[in-house]
Sequence to fold (137 residues):
Amino acid sequence: MSIERTFAMVKPDGVRRGLVGEIVSRFEQKGFKIIALKMMTASPELVGEHYAEHRERPFFGGLVSFLSGGPVVAMCVEGEQVVSEWRRMMGATRPWDSAPGTIRFEFATTVDENVVHGSDSADSAARELGLWFKGEL
Fold:
């Protein structure tokens, strides 16, 4: 197994609903180490850069507005196979497709407000951590 780092985020709906502690505790219970954590309101520019691959999609503007419209909790999390394991813990993007016990199954209300984000690969994690934690890691 390899020790990896990933980017994880509690989205504005999760922060608003008071789910940050629940999500952080799941990382800790799993044995992952939180390397960095900060609450912030992201600028539309940061969110746009983060989701640049979706720039031409019709939902892009709403996504940027949602994620820059309230505080998020950005995290750098470290552990064995943390990228894939965090994706499993989150559940599917569409909450109704998520497995029982996953964060999105338990807490997401819609595909747009699905509580959390996680990098989908080690390369994405490195890019996203660089965006959200510039010079901090």
In short: The longest strand covers residues 72-80. The CA atoms of residues 2 and 68 lie 33 Å apart.
